[in-house]
Amino acid sequence: MLYQAISYGWEYTDEFTFKLAPALLTAGIPVTILLTYINLYLLMPAYYYHQQYIRYAIAIIVLLLAGGVLVRYLTYEFVIPWERLHNPERYRQENKNFWIPVRILRVSLEPYPIIALTMLLKLMNNAYHSQKDLRELEKEKFSAEMRLLKAQINPHFFFNTLNSLYGLALKGSEKTARVVLRLSELMHYMLYEARADKVLLKDEISHLENYIGIEQMRFADRLDISFEYSGDISGKMIAPLLLLPFIENAFKHGLTDQTGWITITLKVISDRLYLKVENSNSPEPKKSSHGLGLENVKRRLELSYAGKYDLHLIEKKEVFQADLKLDL
User: Fold this and answer.
1) CA distances from 160 to 56, 89, 186 (A)
2) pTM (2 d.p.)
């Protein structure tokens, strides 16, 4: 018991001695450890974690009282007989009765600060691990969503490209090999390099050039296409496949009455990217016009560049314009 421990403590102020009370070693410390473990691994999981706070409070009171009785029992059975042999003076002062309510109540309260402290540490540890698990879950969700959004390149592009390649191969066109090479580079970029969170801007631009080159082959003279970029792109990084949906959307909707035009301008000034994509637009656009692809890229911008981009989509009678400003 803590009270007895103090009485056994620094009794001689001029001597460097310290004695632990037998009651503390035999009863106080072991019982406090036992009560602490019961609270952490039985009472808290059974009541506190299920928000049964009244039952938990009653269980704690019962636990403390049981601990006080147990300490008194161990003291009565082991400490008092020990004092009879080794400390007769203290033994003569000791109350020989087992049932001393005041003493039992006092020793019942002594473990409470330890129990409360360990409970607080346990709750803090639980909160830390819960937050850590939540962050991991959010990270996994973010990664899964990003992979899905990056994978949603229009499959019709590959289907149409293969059809065009088949037509060129039948004609024995010299363009076939160049288109196959561009398509191979494009697929390699999408499958491997685009897995990273960020890629070099120059690689992303090369990817766009391959895409545009293949589409130029498909549409031949039916589309008037212009692609220009300027500025210092060396060392600049960007989320992969982020710009492609704007270009893809322009090719998807730029052909009206079997003819059309597309103008793509990309500039880098300091650490800010400016992309402007304009294309001819049907006076009577389809209901699904400019839908899924641009919605996906908006979501990706929110995930990767929240607060660091400005996007305007302007649809006029015969022109559709996408204007993106992005902090790299």
Assistant:
1) 68, 103, 15
2) 0.55
Q: How far is CA 53 from CA 116, 131, 257, in A?
A: 15, 23, 73
Q: What is the per-residue DSSP string for 257-271?
A: TTEEEEEEEEEEETT
Contact between residue 269 and residue 288 where contact means Cβ atoms under 8 Å apart: no
Helix (H) or strand (E) holding 288: none
Pairing mode of beta strands 223-231, 237-238: unpaired
What domains can you pick out in the chain, each with its CATH number?
Answer: 2-135 (no CATH), 152-327 (3.30.565.10)
Is residue 249 pLDDT above 60, yes or no?
Answer: yes
Q: CA-to-CA distance for 241 and 223, rounded, in angstroms? A: 23
Residue 137 three-state SS: helix
Phi, psi of 325 (to 5 degrees): -120, 130
CA distance 20 to 152: 72
pLDDT per position as a tens digit, 280-313: 887 665 544 555 567 778 888 888 888 899 999 9
Q: Which residues of 232-254 are buried (b: 16+ CB within 10 A; e: fewer)?
A: ebeebebbbbbbbbbbbbbbbbb
Please say whether the beta carbons of 188 and 246 come within 8 A.
no
Residue 211: both structure tokens together: 């895409």
